[in-house]
């Protein structure tokens, strides 16, 4: 795979005449070719995969625009986009809502520029407030930005003992606490116990929950590249995490724990157990995902010895005059969060999906 990616990178150095680039929307018959390109393209991520079109449309009802750029019939770039229209949170076009990474993935600057221009044209045609990209590297110095998120990625050793010893002492002690507590792990292919742990956790944080349908769609759509690791003690649910797999990377993406998890270091053990299992299977990168600066999640990941890397969230303002602010740390949302925490969890799980689908 690395040799293929290197050959694609070499081809990216070749100049492409803009007139030779053909842009069109992905059709169902293109999905396999699209994913083959994503697997090879150095700029692409798990969140560029074709399956997100089905997930976003079926789980949230949003309209998607998955653009592909071809040169001589060969895919040279992709740009997945989705439109959100909300009375509460506004009208936007983004790559990609609910995904940590996005933006154009292309083999050349010319192809990326062509995809960019098409996205801006579409944003203007739709009359959105803004066009939003989630980038791992800056692309547009002239677009508005938001210095809010960082991501945490680290290379794993094939030897679990080496990885354990690389964890800072205090955090390593928490992992050992979970081991001594007799916690056990199991890989699951359904999302039922995961959803219980996840929804319990986000309710405790005062955050609207995604629907169980969304997680079922993720598992159905991405198959073997999506699974659930569940932690139990004496058969009782403690914590659970839904994971994505891409090339040699493992991405724990949605997770949560029951109230008992804190007593037995359930979440600490869970992430270690995922790392331990996957490093011996040949996965090289542990992608802990994004976190907002100044949050407990950010500090938790730093405690593992992961260094934060900036994420570049860029906004092309179309009808809007300023960058949107839906950050839960915004003081105006604090009353809503406290109210949500007091709401019965059954009611929160019913209402939550109708709210969160418009947040992106």
Task: Note the main attributes of this structure.
alpha+beta, Aminopeptidase, 12 helices, about 40% helix, 8-stranded mixed β-sheet, globular, about 350 residues, PEP-CTERM_FemAB-rel, 7-stranded mixed β-sheet, 15 strands
Summarize this structure briefly.
The chain has 360 residues and is α+β, with helices and mostly antiparallel strands.
Report on this model:
The protein has helices at 2-11, 31-40, 51-60, 109-126, 160-166, 169-180, 192-205, 212-222, 266-279, 296-303, 334-342, 345-356, and strands at residues 21-25, 63-71, 74-86, 90-95, 105-106, 130-135, 144-146, 149-155, 184-188, 226-233, 236-246, 249-257, 285-292, 308-310, 312-317. With 360 residues, it is of the alpha+beta class. It has two domains: 2-147 and 312-320, Gcn5-related N-acetyltransferase (GNAT) (Aminopeptidase); 157-283 and 341-351, Aminopeptidase (3-Layer(aba) Sandwich). The strands form two sheets. Strands 1, 2, 3, 4, 5, 6, 7 and 15 form an eight-stranded mixed β-sheet that branches. The longest helix has 18 residues, at 109-126. The protein starts with a helix and ends with a helix. Mean pLDDT is 89; it is low at 6-12. This is FemAB family PEP-CTERM system-associated protein.
């Amino acid at each position: 795979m690395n040799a293929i990616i290197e050959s694609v990178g070499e081809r990216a150095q070749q100049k492409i005449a803009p007139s030779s680039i053909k842009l069109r929307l992905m059709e169902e018959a293109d999905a396999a070719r699209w994913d083959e390109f994503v697997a090879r393209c150095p700029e692409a991520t798990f969140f560029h995969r074709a399956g997100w079109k089905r997930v976003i449309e079926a789980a949230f009802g949003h309209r998607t625009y998955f653009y592909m750029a071809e040169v001589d019939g060969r895919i040279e770039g992709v740009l997945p986009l989705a439109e959100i229209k909300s009375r509460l949170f506004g009208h936007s076009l983004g790559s990609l809502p609910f995904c940590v990474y996005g933006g154009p993935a292309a083999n050349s600057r010319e192809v990326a520029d062509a995809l960019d221009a098409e996205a801006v044209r579409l944003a203007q045609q739709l009359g959105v407030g803004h066009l939003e990209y989630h980038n791992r590297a800056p692309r547009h110095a002239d677009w508005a930005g938001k210095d809010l998120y960082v991501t945490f990625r680290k290379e794993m050793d094939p030897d679990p003992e080496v990885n354990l010893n690389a964890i800072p002492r205090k955090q390593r002690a928490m992992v050992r606490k979970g081991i001594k507590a007799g916690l056990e792990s199991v890989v699951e292919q359904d999302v039922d116990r995961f959803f219980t742990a996840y929804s319990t956790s986000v309710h405790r944080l005062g955050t609207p929950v995604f629907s169980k349908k969304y997680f079922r769609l993720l598992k159905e759509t991405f198959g073997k590249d999506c699974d659930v690791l569940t932690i139990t003690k004496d058969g009782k649910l403690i914590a659970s995490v839904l994971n994505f797999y891409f090339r040699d990377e493992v991405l724990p993406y949605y997770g949560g724990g029951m109230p008992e998890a804190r007593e037995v270091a359930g979440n600490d053990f869970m992430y270690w157990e995922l790392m331990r299992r996957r490093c011996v299977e040949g996965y090289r990168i542990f992608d802990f995902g994004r976190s907002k600066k100044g949050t407990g999640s950010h500090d938790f990941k730093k405690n593992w010895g992961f260094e934060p890397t900036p994420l570049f969230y860029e906004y092309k303002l179309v009808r809007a005059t300023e960058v949107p602010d839906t950050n839960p740390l915004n003081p105006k949302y604090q009353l809503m969060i406290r109210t949500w925490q007091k709401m019965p969890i059954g009611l929160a799980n019913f209402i939550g999906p109708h709210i969160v689908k418009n947040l992106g």
